[in-house]
Amino acid sequence: MAILLSNAEARRIFMERQGLSRPPHLALSKAGLLQLIHDLGFVQVDSIQWVERAHHQILFSRNQTYRREDLQALIEQDRALFEHWTHDASILPSAFFPYWKHRFIREEARIRQAWSKWQGEGFNPQSFEETYARIAEGGAVMSRDMKTEDHKSGGWWNWHPSKTALEFLWRTGRVSIAARENFQKVYDLSERVIPSEHHQAEVAHEVFVDWACREALKRLGFATSGEIAAFWHLVTPTEAKTWVEIHRDELEEIQVTSIDGEKNRASFALSGFPDHLGYIPEPPARVRVLSPFDPLLRDRNRAERLFGFFYRIEIFVPEPKREYGYYVFPLLEGDRMIGRIDMKAERKTGSLDVKRLWLEKGVRPSAGRLEKLDAELNRVARFAGVERVTYLPGWRA
After folding, report:
1. pLDDT tens for residues 236-274?
2. Distance between CA 267 and CA 223 in Å, rounded?
3. What is the pLDDT of residues 196-247, one digit of tens each?
4. Neighbouring C-alpha atoms within 13 Å toward the C-beta of 379
C-alpha cells in the first residue's frame, strides 16, 4: 500500500533535503561548506550580480556565516569542487567527476553535430586539438588569451574558433575550470585540476545510472522517475523509468498531496521512508530571500504543487510584458513561499534599494512579518557589501 504524504510533510521533507531546515546562524566551516554542497548535490553558477551572484546567494540563504573565500579555496586550492554542467553550469564535488565522464561521452557527438550547424563553414574541429595542445604546453588560459586580432566580438553565435574549442573541451571533460578572474573562466587540463583519484577513476555504465538515480532520489526525498532524471540531467527519462522498474523492491510508493489537496501525485522513495531520513526539523521561522536559481524552486512544477508558488524569472521577457520585474527574488517564511521582492544592490551609493514587494494571496503584511523581512534585508545588504536598506517610494503599492 502506498504511503500517503500530506502536503505539509512533503514540504518539510523536501526543504530538509535541500538544506533549508538547518540553523542558518551556526558557524559554517570550510569542511561544513563542502558537506553542504555535497548534500545539495550542486549549486548553480550565474553571472548576474543584481544583489549577489546566484551561487553565493544560494549558500548564504542556508547559512548566513557562509564565506565566499571558503568556496574559492575549495575550488581553486583544495580542488574539492569543480565546475560543470547539470541542467546549467554548476559547482559540484570533485568526487562526482567519474560519473560526469559518462556525460562527456554523450555530449561530444551531440555538440559536434549542433555546433557544426550553427557555425557552418566557421566550424573548425581542428582548432579543438590545437587549443588543447597550447594549454598542454603553455599552461592555463582564458578565452581572451586565445582571441585573434581580426575577430569581431558578438554573442555565442559569433564565438571565435578558440573560444568554441575551449567550450567544447570543457563540456567534454578534457579541460576544466581551474579558477575565475573577475568571473572569467581560467581553463587548464583536467588532469591538472581534478584530483587524480577522481580524474582516473572509472565506473561502469550500470553503476553510473544507479548512482545518478539513487543519489537524485536521496536529495529529493521523494520523486517521480521524471524528476529523478531531471535532477542531475545525467540520465534520460527512459533510463530513470527503467531504473525504478528494476529497483522496485528497494523503493516505497508514495502518494504526495498537492497544496490544493485536489490530486495526489504518485512518487517513489527509498525503502524505509521516511525513517531512513532521520529527524526532520521544522525549518526556521525567519523570512529568507532566495536566489531566482535556488534548487528549491528549480523544478517549477514541483514548486507549484508543493508550495502553490508560481515563479518564472523574467530576464528574457521584454520589459512591457513582465509581470513583476527583471530580477525578482522569491521570499520564504518557515515552510511557506510568501511573496517576491524587486531589489538591487547599488554599490556606488552603498544601498540595497527595495523597489517593490508582492505578497502572495492570503499573506498579510503584518508588523511582525515586515520586521522579519527588514531583518533579512539587512542581513542580505551586509552580505552584498552595502551599508543600508532603502525602501523606495511605492515599494508596497
Report:
1. 999 999 999 999 999 999 999 999 988 899 999 999 999
2. 5
3. 999 999 999 999 999 999 999 999 999 999 999 999 999 999 999 999 999 9
4. 21
Interval 272-297 mean pLDDT: 95
pLDDT tens by residue, 159-172? 566 788 899 999 99
Q: What percent of the chain has pLDDT over 90?
A: 85
Nearest to 306, CA basis, from 267, 336, 270? 336
Read off the C-alpha cell for 164. Answer: 568554441
Q: What is the dihedral of CA 164, 167, 170, 175, to 10 degrees?
A: 50
Q: Residue 265 is placed in which grid cell?
A: 501525485
The set of residues, in sequence order, having a beta carbon less than 8 Å from that of 247 and lying 6+ positions away, is: 210, 213
Q: What is the 3-state secondary structure (H, E, C) of the chain?
A: CCEEECHHHHHHHHHHHCCCCCCCCCCCCHHHHHHHHHHHCCEECCCCCCCCCHHHHHHHCCCCCCCHHHHHHHHHCCCCEEEEECCCEEEEEHHHHHHHHHHHHHHHHHHHHHHHHHHHHHCCCHHHHHHHHHHHHHCCEEHHHHCCCCCCCCCHHHCCHHHHHHHHHHHCCCEEEEEEECCEEEEEEHHHHCCHHHHCCCCCHHHHHHHHHHHHHHHHCCECHHHHHHHHCCCCHHHHHHHHHHCHHHEEEEEEECCCCCCEEEEEEECCCCHHHCCCCCCCCCEEECCCCCCCCCCHHHHHHHHCCCCCCCCCCCHHHCCCCCCEEEEEECCEEEEEEEEEEECCCCEEEEEEEEECCCCCCCHHHHHHHHHHHHHHHHHHCCCEEEECCCCCC
| Alpha-carbon gap, residue 345 to 389, rounded angstroms | 9
What's the pTM value of the predicted model, to 2 decimals? 0.94
Phi and psi (nearest 5°) for 264?
Answer: -85, 150
Q: Which whole number is the average pLDDT over 175-192?
A: 97
Q: Which long-range contacts (CB under 8 A, 24 or more apart) does 357-363 make?
A: 357/395, 357/396, 358/324, 360/308, 360/309, 363/336, 363/338, 363/339
